[in-house]
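Field reference: sequence -> structure
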Amino acid sequence: MATLPHYRLAANLSYLTLLFAVMLWVYVSLTRFDGFIRLEPGTTEHVAYLPAGSSGTPLLSRQGLPSELLPFDIESTSRHLDSERAYLPRALPFELLLAKETPEQAPLLRDELVALSNNQAFPLRAGEVIQVHGVTMRVLGVTPWQGLVASPRGGRCAALSLASQKNTLGETLLIEADRWLLMDEQLAIGLHWHATEEEARAAASAQVRPGLDAAWWTVKDGEGAIRSTSFLPGAGTECADGSVWTVEGIAELGSPARPTLQVRVQDKTGQRIESIPANDRSASSRVRFHHPGAAATLIVLHAWRQEEALYAKLEGNSTVPVTGLAGSEAITIVDGRRLWVTQVLPYALPLPERGAAVQQVVLEDDAEKRTYLREGGRAIIAGNEYSYRREPVRETKPLQLEVIHPEPEARHAESLSPGEVLRVGEWRFSLLESAPAPRDPNGVYLRVRYQPFTPGRSIGLALFLLGSYGWVLIRFLPRRKAATNAADTHPSDEDFPVQ
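Structure field:
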C-alpha cells in the first residue's frame, strides 16, 4: 500500500502559515496608526495626527503635510504643532466632543523627606508617624513658611514657635534684638545679642526682671495707637479727638500686687483718673500698660552668632533663672505652653506668612524635639542629613466625552480616566500623562491607536485559519481502497475440486 510522504503535508502547512503571516503583516502595516488628537471643551474634533516618520506611521505613507494645512475641526490645534515638522492626518469615522464642564488638570504636590545619602524618600502627611533611621518622628503638619531671610540690610532677629498644646504646630513669632514680645499677662519674651559666647552665658546666668526702662504704654487713637515710653508724672499725649492723657504715676495695686499705671484723662466728659494693671488686655480703658518685667514667666534669649543662643527663664517670684541651650528642644512654661527657637540670625529681615512662597514641614520626636524644615532646606536627623522637597503630581479627573457617529441613534457619552483605555470600534483612546505641547492650557491630548482586530474580526479570522488548515489535512490524508487484491476476491481451484 502506497503512503503519502510526511514532508508534503509539512510543506503545505508551512506554506499556508507563511502566507497568512505575510498577509497579516502587510495589512497591519498599511492600516496601523498610533498618534494623537487634541480636544478643547465644548468643541468637536474628528481628525487625529501623527508626526511623519515616527514609529506609528503606516507603511507606504506619503510624506506628510505642514501643520497649517491639516484639516482640523479645531483651528487652534495647528498653532500648537511644530511648524518645522510634517504630519499625517487621519480622519476618524466619528467625532469626539469634550464636555465644557470638564475640570481643569490641577497640579498637586507630594511632600517628601529625602535622605541625601541614598535618596530614600519618606512621604510626609500631617498626623502620620515615620521611622527615620530608628527615630520615631511625628509629622505635625505642612504650613506656609514664616521666618527670617538673611539680608545685610536686616538686623539681629530670632524666629520662635509657641504651642499651647502637645502635638500642635503653634504660632510663629518673630522678634528683634533689644525688643520684647508680650503674649499676655503670663508670658514675655526678649532677645539680647552679645559679642561672645562667654558674655552670653554670663548675662543669662545673671538675668533679672527688667524695670520700667523696658516698659511702654499706648493710647488707642482711632484705628491706630500712640506709643510712649515715659512714665514721669506729667508726661502724656493728645489724641485726634482732643482728649489728653497724662501720667500720674505707678502704684502697686491689686491682690496679688502688680504694677498699675495711673493716668489722668481730660476729654469731653471731664476729668478722671484711670488705673491700668500691667499687661491687662481686658481693661475697658483705651490705655494699655505693657510691662515685660510684670509677666508671670519671662524668657530671654541671649545670642552671640548665627543659630547659637542660650535662654534664661524666670517664673513666678523666682530670682534665679533657669538657663539652657535654645534650639530644637522645647522650653516649657508653667501654664503648659512650649516654646521652640527655630532661627537665630545676625542680619535678617522678617518674612510674614502672607508673603511666603514656600512651605515648611514640622517634625517632632518622642522627646518633643522639633525639626523645622523649609522647602529645599536641610537638617540633621539621627546623624544623617535630610532635605524637604515637594514633588509635582498631576491628578487628572475623568474626562467626559461624547462620541458622535453619523447615525443620530449611535451617539453616546463616555468617561475616560487616567490609565484607562476607551474603545470605540477599531479605535483606542487613552489620556496622555504629559501633553505634547506644554504651553497649551486649553488643550486636552489623547493618544489614538487603530486596532483592526476587534473581537468579532478575530473570531472570524481564527475560524478561517482553522478551516484552511483543516482543508489541507483532509486533502492529504491517506484513503482506504474500495476493493482488495484479485487473490482475495476470487476463489482458487482448490476450493472447487474436479470430479
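Note: The chain has a mean pLDDT of 82.
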